[in-house]
Design a protein that fits this description.
Its cofactor is Zn(2+). By secondary structure, the chain is of the alpha+beta class. It is built from 23 helices and 9 strands. The protein has helices at 5-14, 54-59, 78-81, 85-94, 97-110, 114-125, 129-147, 152-158, 164-175, 179-190, 213-222, 270-281, 287-294, 301-306, 318-327, 333-347, 365-368, 380-394, 406-414, 421-431, 443-451, 458-465, 472-480, and strands at residues 24-27, 32-34, 48-51, 63-64, 200-206, 229-232, 235-242, 245-254, 257-264. The strands form 2 sheets. The chain has a 5-stranded antiparallel sheet with strand order 5-9-8-7-6. A 4-stranded mixed sheet has the order 3-1-2-4. The longest helix has 19 residues, at 129-147.
Length: 495
């Protein structure tokens, strides 16, 4: 989009917040870059340059605007819609792969050499993977500086910097202020909103509006696995396994943001934890595009109009989601929770949760690799499906992560015994974030389709759904909202 000067200029003139995260505007006369909705008077057109990412603007010698804080905007929805190598790269960078494995490790995951990957990102994004990761570190650092009481030294390592000096120099270059000055300025501006304590913090996760969070949080609440997830005082809480330890996160929805209260074992995991929370809640989606596309269908239009801004309930761990989808084959939501809880109790690592009732992490595929079938209270055929999936994930015969190829993952899944279109599409939609997945054989989808006058049989429904591309996952979520089911209740009803 950044290459269309007229379109970008109109967005800046209108101060349209919908375009925040799509691109940044660099101002030649001041040397700063801003989000499109920056409240200051727009500069003259001849003084504007548009960049696809903050990293590209920083490489051009521009520093972040102190007024609009462009690093506090939602991420670009483009990386969640596209399945090409650049989009997969951005998703992996967001998960902190560059910080943990370097550019070489990132390239290896994608099947490219480091040099090839650098050429691709430089050509499209104006920055190398290392520069993109650096910009992300700065963004996370600024969020932690301004919204928590973490010691500045802890912020540096939590954001992924290797040294205090590198951290200080980068923040000064990008923000034109020292970390201490940034914190002091933030406190003067809003008085702070931090949760003090070792490893504990309170963050505000930005979201594009409209934000119909009831279906999203209702689904997470209805499918919550005891011990791993819970709803407490209007907050969805869960445990997470992270690269260097574990975390407990509480997520409270609001019309224009999500309040995130996070406790981590290791500060180095903060960046990954935030990225996974955003992915779980699908916060970087483009609701306006979805509304425009799906609202054109006469059958879907009433559902879209009733609750625009639906999000897909996703996951913090692709392997966990895949296991849970198989556990949910041909059973009710309550039965799937029971099966999952049994595995959690038998194989999951224990965690401490002083603020609630969470007790375990969901077991990893390594922990489930020697699963005892006495813990699997369902037919032998589905037991074989589950153990086959676990084995395939353990050996990387099936690759499911934030940067995997969606279509390749589908083919790998479908090659396993007992995994059909419903399972592969549910994993693609909720586990991998493919916006165009469509579980046409889902009973809830069929029931909802029939309720609004659409064919309920999978084949004719799939034919009709072609008009919804590339937003069929969101069409699925809208269809689910037509049902009288616990997944649409937030806060959940007392049992």
């Amino acid at each position: 989009m950044h290459t269309d000067f007229d379109r970008c200029y109109r967005a800046v003139q209108a101060k349209d917040a919908r375009f925040d995260g799509w691109f940044v505007i660099a101002v030649l006369s001041t040397g700063i870059y801003c989000r499109p909705s920056c409240p200051v008077r727009p500069p003259l057109a001849r003084n504007m340059r548009f960049y696809p990412t903050a990293a590209a603007a920083q490489r051009g010698g521009f520093r972040a605007c102190k007024r609009c804080r462009p690093d506090a905007s939602p991420g670009s929805p483009e990386w969640n819609v596209r399945g090409d190598v650049v989009a997969r790269t951005m998703r992996l960078i967001a998960d902190g792969v560059v910080d943990r494995e370097g550019v070489a490790g990132l390239a290896a995951r994608l099947g490219y050499t480091a040099r090839q990957l650098e050429r691709l990102t430089q050509a499209e994004l104006g920055a190398t993977p290392l520069a993109l990761a650096r910009a992300q570190r700065t963004q996370i650092a600024r969020v932690l500086i301004e919204t928590t009481e973490m010691p500045i030294s802890d912020v540096a390592f939590a954001a992924g910097f290797s040294s205090i000096r590198q951290f200080n120099d980068t923040v000064r270059t990008v923000c034109d202020m020292s970390p201490t000055m940034l914190r002091r300025r933030a406190r003067a501006r809003d008085g702070g909103d931090a949760l003090a304590g070792a490893g504990a913090m309170s963050l505000r996760l930005p979201v594009r509006t409209p934000f119909a969070y009831e279906g999203l949080f209702g689904h997470l609440a209805a499918t919550a696995v005891p011990g791993v997830e819970e709803v407490r005082d209007g907050t969805y809480r869960r445990t997470m396994r992270l690269p260097h330890g574990s975390a407990v996160v509480g997520l409270t929805p609001h019309p224009d943001h999500v309040r995130c209260r996070l406790v981590v074992d290791e500060f180095r995991d903060v960046s990954a934890a935030i990225a996974r929370c955003r992915r779980l809640l699908d916060l970087d989606a483009d609701p306006e595009a979805v509304v425009e596309a799906l609202g054109a269908d006469d059958h879907l239009a009433p559902l879209v109009t009733k609750a625009p801004g639906q999000r897909i309930p996703r996951t913090v761990d692709e392997h966990e989601l895949a296991v849970r989808v198989v556990l949910g084959q041909q059973v009710s939501t309550a039965a799937a929770r029971t099966h999952a809880a049994r595995l959690v109790s038998a194989y999951g690592d224990s965690v401490s949760d002083s603020a609630g009732g969470l007790t375990h992490l969901f077991p990893s595929v390594a922990q489930l690799s020697d699963i005892d079938r006495r813990h699997l209270a369902f037919p032998a055929s589905r037991q074989r499906t589950l153990t086959g999936l676990i084995a395939a994930l353990s050996t990387a015969e099936v690759v499911l992560d934030s940067g995997c190829d969606w279509q390749a993952a589908r083919q790998q899944l479908l090659a396993l015994p007992g995994i059909g279109p419903w399972t592969s599409e549910m994993i693609a939609m909720r586990g991998l974030g493919d916006p165009d997945a469509f579980p046409a054989t889902d009973l809830g989808v069929a029931a909802a389709a029939g309720h609004i006058g659409l064919p309920s049989a999978p084949k004719p429904l799939s034919e009709h759904a072609r008009a919804w591309r590339p937003w069929r996952s969101y069409a699925t979520q809208h269809l689910w909202t037509a049902l009288d089911h616990a997944v649409n209740q937030w806060p959940p009803k007392e049992k």
